[in-house]
Amino acid sequence: MSDFVAPLADMRFILDALIGFEAIAALDGCAEMGRDLVDPILEEAAKFAAHRLAPLNHAGDRAGARAADGVVRSAPGFAAAYADFVAAGWNALAADPAHGGQGLPGVLAAPVEEMWQGANLAFGLCPLLTRGAVHALELCASAAQQARYLPKLVQGSWTGTMNLTEPQAGSDLAAIRARAEPDPGGAGWRIRGTKIFITYGEHDMAENIVHLVLARLPDAPEGVKGISLFVVPKFLINPDGSLGARNDLRCVSIEHKLGIHASPTAVMAFGDGPGALGELVGAPHRGLEAMFKMMNLARFAVGLQGVAIGERAYRQALAYAETRLQGSDVADPRGPRVAILRHPDVRRMLMTMKAETEAARALAYVAAFQMDVAARHPDAAMRAQAQSRADLLIPLVKGGATEAALRTASLGVQVHGGMGFIEETGAAQHYRDARILTIYEGTTGIQANDLLGRKLLRDDGAAARALAGEIAATERALRAIADLAPIGAALGRAQAALERAIGWMLATHAADPRAAAAGAVPLLDLFALAATGWQMGRAALAAHARLQAGGNADAPFLRAKLGTARFHADHILSRADGLAHAIEAGAAATLALEEAAFAL
Predict the structure, then answer these.
(1) Which of 155, 213, 425, 489 is 20 to 30 A from 246, comparing alpha carbons?
(2) If you ran DSSP here, which 8-state letter would residue 215 be given?
(3) What is the mean pLDDT of residues 569-583?
(4) DSSP labels, 498-518
């Protein structure tokens, strides 16, 4: 297996050329956030990822987490690595300084987060969920609750989870049955119920686990409007902040999964006895709003996981292709054996992996910056505009980047040939791990429905068309430069396809919502394709300008970026017309058969 290699050059290029350190520094609390600060953070994160986390990835996959009698033991080496992770301050990087965090904006934390997930996805899930819990409590908890929970969660000595799904509910949160009743002694609420698919719901890496749990109060109305949010610690917290008795909750089992074996996915039982004691977070019956704030961040983080696993699969496939000798060059059939990197189809696969991953990374970082602007910009109108753009981009990052990761990891296995199907090479693990990314925190279909219903239809397409207009502006800039005109032409075709699809969806949904829903995933695919193509076009413009200026030490990287952008335009953006056709004409075939006919 190849060692983990952090893509520092591409990370820096995106932060500098596509976002701009000046724009970051203009945000509240970010005046010092320049390259002099960021570069050492990225370099140290790359070292920690490569030396502490990556060596545990394959071994952790083989060993897995283990559960017995409600006790979960992490994979060998994970607890020690987590202790080092916390001691180095990595868990607090992006948290509010008011609670012990270092205050780094999300766009600068994103590359670091990508490194954790790329080096060891199963490990990275634990701090990822904790950050989500911190975010929810920062937004919705009382001052007393924040003082009680946030310092330890930010530090990392406690970890966090979110408990939504139940056996009978799946993604239908309206079907949640977990209930909360007043504690007879007035100590809070007693939670009873079963939750499934709880990532790091039980483990031995931290001294306490703080569960955010959705449940219903006795007077709760039916449906999603009757769900409340509770904070339920594994160990109760004494008035002086020390840990008290074990709460009435337990891990019944952990799931046996296709991938992420070292990440314990727990079935949690609350209230076998008197009920798990918890505190209401926010207003009664408003828990779903609070949890969605946490989930929105988690969806972005999962999209970033897609970028990370795509990068890891690409680097491993590239290392194999550089050293595996097989066959001769097609231009010299009788010549010596060559590395398979010389074979055109292997190059096509590797370039596809590289282009999809770099495009997804750029879009993810741009989305992270929009979230920072929405939270930190001094102007209220700019905050609102950025929030609208972030809301639009998050399903594209989550849905688009994770689907790209699955394609990329599959190609990584293919580049290895038969050896990719053998577990010892590690290529299969990336494919197995990537498979969950399109599912958890909302499947691709759920992301597509969110894009259609909550983003496109909510404002009659205004935010979508504004983004399409920016894509068109980039297209025009590309067409004005002869060397970049082919990229501009491809982006223009994708932009036109997107405009048609937006118009069709807006015209169709009111009259035939099933037809519109049938095209929701192709719409997400097309939107993500155009948005990532837009970022590759912007990257091409920046790389071209820097090369024209001359004297650039990064010239080899910049030339490679131009080549990758051209490949993306020719091989990936060219899918746009087919997706537009599937949206506009595909609903009839999707909906034509009666249910019984599927079995014929």
Answers:
(1) 155
(2) E
(3) 97
(4) HHHHHHHHHHHHTT-HHHHHH
Phi, psi of 79 (to 5 degrees): -65, -40
Asked if residue 534 is part of any domain, the answer here is yes
pLDDT at 294: 73
DSSP E strands: which ranges in 23-126?
Answer: 66-68, 71-73
Cα 90 → chain centroid: 18
Number of residues in the chain: 600
* Domains: count for the chain: 1
Give mean pLDDT, residues 346-371. Answer: 98
List, for residues 497-525, the tens digit of each pLDDT value. Answer: 999 999 999 999 999 999 999 999 999 99
Classify residue 131: in a domain, yes or no: no
The DSSP-derived string for 107-168 is HHHHHHHHHHHHH-HHHHHHHHHHHHHHHHHHHHS-HHHHHHHHHHHHHTSEEEEEE---TT
DSSP annotation of 586 reads S
Q: Is 441 a catalytic residue?
A: yes
Paired tokens of 78: 């994970």
From residue 228, give the alpha-carbon distance in Å to each of 131, 216, 291.
20, 6, 9
Instruction: Tell me whether residue 545 is in a domain.
Output: yes
Residue 77 has which token pair? 């080496």
Q: What angle do CA 295, 24, 491 make, to 5 degrees?
A: 75
Strand-pairing partners, residue 233, are 210
Structural domain of 518: 456-592
Structure tokens at 6: 């952090």
Q: 91: closest CA among 128, 121, 54, 120?
A: 128
Residue pLDDT, tens place only, 70-97: 899 999 999 999 999 999 999 999 999 9
DSSP calls for 171-190: T-GGG---EEEE-TTSSSEE
The pLDDT value recorded for residue 16 is: 96
Residue 272 lies in a domain: no
**Cα gap 3→321, rounded to integer Å:** 14
Give dist(CA 483, CA 565) in Å, integer.
Answer: 12
End-to-end Cα spacing for the chain: 45
Catalytic residue among 114, 441, 475, 499: 441
Phi and psi at residue 184, in whole multiples of 5°?
Answer: -55, -30
The rounded distance, in Å, linking the Cα atoms of 137 and 117 is: 24
Name the DSSP letter for residue 458.
T
| DSSP notation for 537-552 | HHHHHHHHHHHHH---
Q: Which amino acid is at 214?
A: L
- CB neighbours of residue 379 within 10 Å: 10
For the chain, count helices (H), then strands (E): 21, 14
Contact call for residues 136 and 185 (beta carbons, < 8 A) = no
